[in-house]
Amino acid sequence: MSEVVKKFMYVNRRAPYGTIYAWESLEVVLIGAAFDQDVSLLFMDDGVFQLTKGQDTTGIGMKNFSPTYRTLGDYEVKSIYVDGDSLAARGLTQDDLIQVAWEDWESGEEKENIVEVVDVARIKELTEESDVIFSF
Amino acid sequence: MSILHTINKSPFERNSLDACLKFATAGASVLLIEDGVYAVLKGTSAEAQIKGALGNLTVHVLGPDLKARGFSEERVIEGVKVVDYAGFVDLAAENDKVQAWL
Fold first, then answer.
1. Is A85 on the interface with B (CB under 8 A)?
2. How far is A97 from chain B (nearest CA, A)?
3. What are the residue ranges spanned by the domains of chain A?
4. Fewer CB within 10 Å, N or C, chain A?
């Protein structure tokens, strides 16, 4: 295992189901968990639709992968950021989004929900602080 | 000649909705499917455009695609008709042709 811990940020800008981007991003995040890095996810533009509550794909014959987001806290994902402007433009608020719990197995530290709505200034900071950015 | 226009792209990412509404003639039917369904949600930046279109077009949305994305019918703009797959078939059959805005 690498000694150097880098800050990885996954930027998600596509809606789920219409294209494969959202699902592919999730797969990479889950695989990447094996590398013990500092991982955060950012959802902006149509990517915010990936986190909506109550997705039910029985009618379209596709796998509903939204429950998987709720397990990300167990896959080394420490933070999930959502662009507030993108939510507002789509008539959404944080209440429309799923919650993701997080727990550090070593320290026992817990967070009920790591999904955080942020503004443009904060997104700029997060981008600057990242060592590696993956775009989907 | 009556035309059914289908739109399967998000109005926030592509201009399929803009193009369709610009060229659709009065009385035509529009059906939002796949990522196109986001256009008919209340409170979005596309709401005024859909409300404007309802004046001379009939607008439909595919229910299973809405449900897959976590939205109930209550979130849909008044005047937009929610249809199922059978309704999609009916629309295709009732109209003389289908124009898909990809």
1. no
2. 10
3. 7-135
4. N
**B8/A contact by beta carbon, under 8 A:** yes
Interface check B101 vs A, CB under 8 A: no
pLDDT at A61 > cutoff 90: yes
Task: Give me the pLDDT at residue A2, please.
Answer: 56
User: For residues A71 and A109, is the Cβ–Cβ distance under 8 A?
Assistant: no
pLDDT-derived band at A104 (thresholds 50, 70, 90) equals: confident
For the CA atoms of B17, A20, A97, B30, the dihedral, rounded to the nearest 10 degrees, stands at 20
Quote the pLDDT of residue A1.
52
Q: pLDDT > 90: what percent of chain B?
A: 99
CATH code assigned to A7-135: 3.40.1260.10
- Any chain A CB within 8 A of the CB of B102? no
Pairing of strands A115-118, A132-135: unpaired
Q: How many angstroms away from the CA of A16 is the closest CA of chain B?
A: 8
Q: DSSP class of residue A76?
A: T
- Interface contact B43-A91, CB threshold 8 A: yes
Supply the pTM of this predicted model: 0.93
Confidence label for B54 from pLDDT (cuts 50, 70 and 90):
very high
Q: For the residues A56-81, what does the mean pLDDT come to?
A: 95
Distance (Å) of CA B45 to CA A23, A81, A95, A121, B66: 26, 22, 19, 22, 18
For B3-101, the fitting CATH number among 3.40.1260.10, 3.20.20.70, 3.40.50.150, 3.30.230.10 is: 3.40.1260.10
